[in-house]
Amino acid sequence: MTGQYFCHAPGRVVALREAAAGSPAVLLNGIHFLEVDPGQRRLRVHFVHPLDLVPAAPLTPANVEIRGGARVRNPAVTAIAPENEVLTVDVATAGDFSRYRLRLVASAGTGVPPDGIDPALAEIEFSFKADCPSDFDCRPAATCPPDPAAGPAVDYFARDYATVRRLILDRMSVLMPEWCERSAADLWVTLAEAIAYRADEIAYFQDAVGTEAYLGTARQRVSVRRHTRLLDYPFHDGRNARTFVAFEVEPAADGQVLNGCDPETGLGGTLVFTTVPGLGPAVSQDDADTGLRAGAQPFELLEPVTLFSAHNGIAFHTWSDDECCLPKGATLAFLRDDPGNRLRLRAGDILIFEAMKSTTTGEKVDADRLRRHAVRLTHVDPEARMKGGVRGVSSPRRDPVTGEAFVEIEWGEGDALPFPLCLSKRIGGALVDGMAAVAGNVGLADHGVTVAREERPEPLAGGRTPRFRLASTAVALLTQQGRVRVPGSDEVVLIDRSKAASAALVCEMADVRPALEVRSGSDQRRWNVRRDLLASGGAANDLVVEVENDGRAFLRFGDGVNGRPPRPGEDLTARIRVGNGVAGNVGAEAIGHAVAAFGGISRVRNPLPATGGVDAEPMLKARLDAPEAFRRQERAVTEADYAEVVERDPRVERAVATRRWTGSWYTMFITVDRRGSETIDPAFEAALAAHVERYRLAGHDVEIDGPRYVALDVALHVCAKPGYFPTDIESRLLDRFSAGLRSDREPGFFHPDRLTFGEPVYLSAVIAAAMDVTGVAFVTPLTFQRLGRSPAGEIEAGRIAMQRLEIARLDNDPNAPENGRIRFEVETKGQAR
After folding, report:
1. InterPro entries from the xrefs (predicted)?
2. Are 313 and 436 part of one and the same domain?
3. Which of 82, 212, 715, 826 could form a disulfide with 726 if both were Cys (CB 3.0 to 4.6 A apart)?
4. How many degrees, rounded to 5, is the angle at CA 823 between CA 818 and CA 829?
5. Model confidence over 652-701: pLDDT tens digits?
6. How confident is residue 161, by pLDDT bands cut at 50, 70 and 90?
């Protein structure tokens, strides 16, 4: 149960011995360590206490399981023999080079240890090959490369009207050389600017019709939007930012709920805003209005948050171990519970892991603020009970040794921890704990504020379809709210709680919708906001929001064919949100206040920066990109079409399609090089076939298969520079030519994602990679060919050729030698070969 942590100073064995010596005594047994006999058919498992003392019921072979292995899977236990604190375990066959796990279970197929066995010491990881000779240090290297720095943002926006004014002033300088005044208050300059303004206005009206008729010349956003829609290009008006907001409350506020937005309109969520000096964490609406007028950036909660003081800062439960860390990629953890103030977590809640102290100094002020990560819980044990909409407590789980209450939490792979999180560490000889904590009471918020007063849209005269102006958008930008598409439909929602927390911050621009609500005054009928009216029927209550160049928003209704128009004289009311674009991309800890009708909120903050805020797309960019969207192939006819369609799936690195006649019809066989994996499992094959179905040509069957892997046999003679150990150089070479990730977390030379269909393996690239290793003087190839084949002049040709559907493979795995091998003969200068 403690395998999720990596601890430099395990203390569980000491805790069991102290518990047995305490008063009252807590007698539990557990695995201390394991030895493998030279024959690899017998294991000696050492326990903390003698086996005749605990457990009370003697262990049987059914209580011992061995799991794992690549070539030899799950070796069977044939017999066991206890003697004092040692349990001798005989296995049917020796394992391979993989890591195995021996565990004690109450019965076969269950994960519960027998009575009297500590769950934290009920299993142990080992290798049958531990006694095999090795030239390398068995201690694994732990490296944490720095995160790549983000590149700077570049904005190429430049536009003004001064051409006519410059022309007039230049002409006046020719006509009146003695006139040199250029002050804006000069009468001649004023007249020149008035004439330039009028000339620009006249020119605009003269050219408006012809100019707006073409995408390449249109100057109004509405015109560009309609042109690009015909090309199926999502020309956008920006998007608001999102962030996670954490609340800390006093016990008096336990159970209080902060409301979220209306899921249909995106309006009315609890208002939070950036810090304003002089205001407390919880403020009134009047104080909030004062802060917003002072320039604070507003946000509103998208989903309700139930507040509990126990969730303010939750500590980790480390099973009596010290110097622990939550490793990179973790999806499980244990949290410390307080019997007097219980945790009330449920699946779907959002938590934020954060470093609280520096790993070098141990001080809070030096804590790394980049070590923060949000997760959405998928499993909680024990989980808070729901009764009448109120969260109740469940029976606590307790550590059988210390009696401490704890809660086990899990989250999805999409929220896997992107960095190791240190929980405790010895600094200067002293143990520093509490180096990380978990923030609860977390809700997702997005940029913008709902305008309290309703407005009446102003109808515009003329036009084929009814248009109304939203006057309030002349002062502040209408919020363009990011949404996510419901899988398998065209509907969009604010949040998909089935996905990871990180997915809530990512929205496609095509799914952005304005945040507003429009109703008819007569019957309070709601009008639905759509991206366009092409799919709306003649009676549909749909409308489109169009934004002009100056940011003002207009409502466009249907014409009776696509969408229903309002009745003549119909009274419309609108509620809107304002706030949009990059202004909402505030930094971490920028938010500091919340509008609440109750007291007890002691702190409001956003541990992570707000992201996703995008300004309105420049029209010049749409003119460049929209024609490419028109040329995008949306049906598959040829082999190249099918390959291109499959490569759109982010899980596919490259695909090759082959059309074959199967006796009755044509079948398109699509060979897929999967990204980050070599297996084509049935689930992946079914998902890929469903992706291709919408593009498939009638009469074509589609079959998905994997590539033909070609195992390689490579041997190099390496001469080392003076002062370097051959074993160190060989270790670096094996790391460089790995089929997985290297120690610096970069892909190895033979990583599956670096090799693809028909790509030869060049000897020059292999030698260059070897020469790049520290300590290598020069390299001579000894073997360079396909595994199991006779040499065919590959060294002379300088490459190993691959056929159209073949991919080179060199795993160098002792458990699977048929998947390729690489060997190095490392010698120092002057040593005879």
Report:
1. CHP02243
2. yes
3. 826
4. 175
5. 888 999 999 888 888 999 999 888 676 788 888 888 888 888 888 888 88
6. low
- Asked if 697 and 713 sit in the same domain, the reply is no
Angle at 483 between CA 479 and CA 485, to 5 degrees: 155
Q: How far apart are CA 623 and CA 646, in angstroms?
A: 28
Under DSSP, is residue 235 helix (H, G, I), strand (E, B) or coil? coil
Same domain, 728 and 815: yes
Compute CA distances 679 → 316, 685, 693, 806, 819, whole Å: 37, 10, 22, 15, 14
Query: Side chain identity at 185, as an amino acid letter?
Result: A
pLDDT tens readout for residues 18-28: 999 988 889 99
Q: Which of 377, 405, 440 is the last residue of a domain?
A: 440
pLDDT at 157 over 50: no
Residue with tokens 């040199």: 180
Cα distances (Å, whole numbers) of residue 580 to 297, 413, 554, 616, 706: 10, 31, 16, 9, 46
Q: Does residue 267 sit within a domain?
A: no
Q: Going along 317-392, which residue ranges are E strands? A: 322-326, 332-336, 350-355, 372-381, 385-387, 390-392
Q: How far is C-alpha 484 from the chain's CA centre?
A: 15
Phi, psi of 414 (to 5 degrees): -65, -20
Pair (470, 560) in one structural domain:
yes
User: pTM for the complete prediction?
Assistant: 0.72
Whole-number Å distance between alpha carbons of 763 and 759: 13
Strands 591-595 and 282-283: what pairing? parallel
Q: Which two tokens stand for residue 556?
A: 């466009």
Total domains present in the chain:
6
- The DSSP annotation for 592-618 comes to EEEE-SSS-EEEEE-SS--B--BPPPP
